[in-house]
Amino acid sequence: MHGNSNFYELKQLVEQSERIVFFGGAGTSTESGIPDFRSAEGLFNNRENRKLAPEEMLSRDFFIAHPEDFYLFYTSKMIYTEAKPNKAHLALAELERDGKLKAVITQNIDGLHQLAGSRNVLELHGSVHRNYCMDCGESYPLSAVVEARGAVPRCSICNGIIKPDVVLYQESLDMEVLERAAMHISKADMLIVAGTSLTVQPAAGLVRLYKGDRLVLINKSATPMDRLAKILVQDSIGKVLDAIIR
């Protein structure tokens, strides 16, 4: 099934499945107006007017060495407080309420799945909504970062630097979250993968743990796993998932 052909087959598969797992990347949130930061327009000028790539500015070394520049980039390019869940997020929350969807595994840090009502969300790369003081460990909401207006947010208790609980380049993923994601995928009878190119780890490795024959790939461009998919849809994720629950 490609493109705009009917979603009948996909709907049937969902009806026959009882342990669906959704694995999503940046493409799941683009319909909420959150761009994939990798497609962020080229290089950024820091305050010394040096041009830097997003991957460099989102590294742990850069955060430690240049927290001011990090926060300028992070607050302008990674935080979208106005973003609302789209049809994809809402459809997944409904599938979970119906008892069919067992877990949402996401590479996104925007918290939109939870906002839509999903309960079992495994965030591989953390969340902008959780922040903590690097010195005393005090927790802070997103508002603490936003209200600093691009400056470095400081702990009200000890004045330490507040760091977002997001996985930066050079940092390792939370092994407990990773293990839970692996467990859910290996037990799934249907795996829906959407909005991710499947070219980075651990995404590719996790998807390979799926043992079933109901792999659904929804992505605008081709992925290395297209040939393994039972159903391949190159279309809007929101449109496709919304059609499943209608």
TrEMBL record:
Residues the entry annotates as binding NAD(+): A26, T30, F37, R38, Q107, I109, D110, H125, T196, S197, N219, I237
Note the PROSITE patterns from the entry: SIRTUIN
What is the free-text note on the cofactor?
Binds 1 zinc ion per subunit.
Q: Needs which cofactor?
A: Zn(2+)
Reactions catalysed, as given in the entry: N(6)-acetyl-L-lysyl-[protein] + NAD(+) + H2O = 2''-O-acetyl-ADP-D-ribose + nicotinamide + L-lysyl-[protein]
Organism domain of life? Bacteria
User: Member of which family?
Assistant: Belongs to the sirtuin family. Class U subfamily.
Report the enzyme's class at the first EC level.
Answer: transferase
What keywords are assigned to this protein?
Cytoplasm, Metal-binding, NAD, Transferase, Zinc
Indicate where this protein resides in the cell: Cytoplasm
> InterPro entries this protein is in?
DHS-like_NAD/FAD-binding_dom (IPR029035), NAD-dep_sirtuin_deacylases (IPR050134), Sirtuin (IPR003000), Sirtuin_cat_small_dom_sf (IPR026591), Sirtuin_class_U (IPR028628), Ssirtuin_cat_dom (IPR026590)
Q: Name the GO cellular-component terms.
A: cytoplasm
Instruction: Give the main localization category.
Output: cytoplasm
Could you say which EC number(s) this protein's record lists?
2.3.1.286
Gene Ontology molecular function: any one: histone deacetylase activity, NAD-dependent
Metal-binding as a keyword of this entry, yes or no, is yes
Its annotated function is as follows: NAD-dependent protein deacetylase which modulates the activities of several enzymes which are inactive in their acetylated form.
Instruction: Kindly list the positions annotated as binding nicotinamide.
Output: F37, I109, D110
- Record-annotated residues binding Zn(2+)? C133, C136, C155, C158
Origin organism is: Paenibacillus roseus
Residue intervals of the Deacetylase sirtuin-type domain: 1-246
Q: What is this protein called?
A: NAD-dependent protein deacetylase
